[in-house]
Amino acid sequence: MIADGRDSQRIVITGIGLTAPNGNSLSEYRAALLAGQSGVQPYEIRYVGKTLAGICDFDELKYQRKKDLRRGTRAGSIGIYCAREAVADSGLDWDNVDPAQVGIYIGVTEHGNVETENEVYELKGFDYDTKFWSHHHNPRTVANNPAGEISLNLGITGPHYTIGAACAAGNAGLIQGAQMLRLGDCDVALAGGVSESIHTFGIFASFKAQGALAEHDDPARASRPFDEERNGIVVAEGGCIFVLERYADAAARGAKIYGEVYGYAINSDASDFVLPNACRQRECLEIALRRAELNPDQIDIVSTHATGTSSGDIQESEAMRDAFRGSDRTWFNNTKSFIGHAMGAAGALELAGNLLAFEDGVCHATINLEHPDPECELPGLVACEPRERADISYILNNSFGMLGINSAVIIKKA
Fold it and tell me: Closest Cα to residue 195, out of 29, 79, 24?
């Protein structure tokens, strides 16, 4: 049922399900962030060898059978776990929710590489005889797979698709869900992002070839955005899915509301395949603020995208200094320093990690920031230890990606 007037345009978060390298529920994850607990571990993958990664350890069999795991994908399994946890957290009377009125909108950076690499690797043991190629390969590698696996598992008959938005995909999934609710395309949206990236050697090899794969003797200290000694990305897997509803529907059933989707923007650099553009990033932030009718100094926390690469952190810092010039009360933090870069899930996980600040009044820190890079200077950068504020009302979440896609989402306290 679409509510009348403004309430039909107000979209709220009523459920959160996630798996991260340092937690398999929002409460576990938040506790790890406040305690400074990293989820980065030693990791080894074919051809690349020993490296580091953010690895999840959720219970795959909580919502799936072994048969389902053999047929499906890691991304699909992550998506199913997160979606089921989000639905349970939302308090929806799921048995009485019309499955045709539920939409699934899942952001991904890439999909299918893991399955294709595995099949080619196995096939070489059979002298590349394609009769040994898995008949499950096509449904595993179609772009809509993670959202489709969620649809099959939960019996959802409404629209499902993935949003390919590089490392802005977590934000893009949430934005898409909010837009579809506003258009009346669904009554409940499962929206967010997933990543199985650590299971493809290609992503490690490519970052290593670029000189952008992080190294450190202590895995927990490898991801160090804004630090002078940062040396690249720690690849991570994970997922986070939000239950989104119209405010009137959520209020009518007395739902717990984590926050309201208050503003957002997506734009493009149109300047380079991989190098970020500070000017376009600033414009993205300004568009989101303008749409939300907010001044920069009204934003309490900015969750930064910063990946730990040399140029990326500098460009984002420049964009934020320009967009928030004159604001002396905005805090900036980073979550990749704890879990690495979860690619398609990054934006959703980073937003989720900050949302409980509305309740506890704490901004989690950026860890491993021992020697701040002067070129990444931000007056309100929260480093090493969390900071407290009596009333946190607005959080802005940055997510940027390759091919120059930029995104920003603003969440308002309920």
Answer: 79
Q: What does the CA dihedral 378, 380, 384, 389 come to, rounded to 10 degrees?
A: -170
Please determine whether the domains at 11-252 and 264-412 fall in the same fold group of CATH. yes
pLDDT per residue, tens digit, the chain (414 aa), is 334 456 779 999 999 999 999 999 999 999 999 999 999 999 999 999 999 999 999 999 999 999 999 999 999 999 999 999 999 999 999 999 999 999 999 999 999 999 999 999 999 999 999 999 999 999 999 999 999 999 999 999 999 999 999 999 999 999 999 999 999 999 999 999 999 999 999 999 999 999 999 999 999 999 999 999 999 999 999 999 999 999 999 999 999 999 999 999 999 999 999 999 999 999 999 999 999 999 999 999 999 999 999 999 999 999 999 999 878 899 999 999 999 999 999 999 999 999 999 999 999 999 999 999 999 999 999 999 999 999 999 999 999 999 999 999 999 999
Residue 70 amino acid letter: R
Contact 347, 106 (CB under 8 A): no
CA distance 87 to 250: 13
**Do 323 and 371 touch, CB atoms closer than 8 A?**
no
Tokens of 374: 């002067």
The Cα–Cα gap between 122 and 125 comes to 6
Total residues belonging to the chain = 414
Superfamily classification of domain 264-412: Thiolase/Chalcone synthase (3.40.47.10)
CATH superfamily of 11-252: Thiolase/Chalcone synthase (3.40.47.10)
b/e burial code for range 37-53 (CB count within 10 A of at least 16 → b)? bbbbbebebeebeebbb
Domains in the chain: boundaries: 11-252, 264-412
Taken in order 310, 374, 342, 286, the sign of the CA dihedral is: negative
Q: Which residues are CB-neighbours of 110 under 8 A, at least 6 positions away?
A: 164, 197, 200, 203, 343, 344
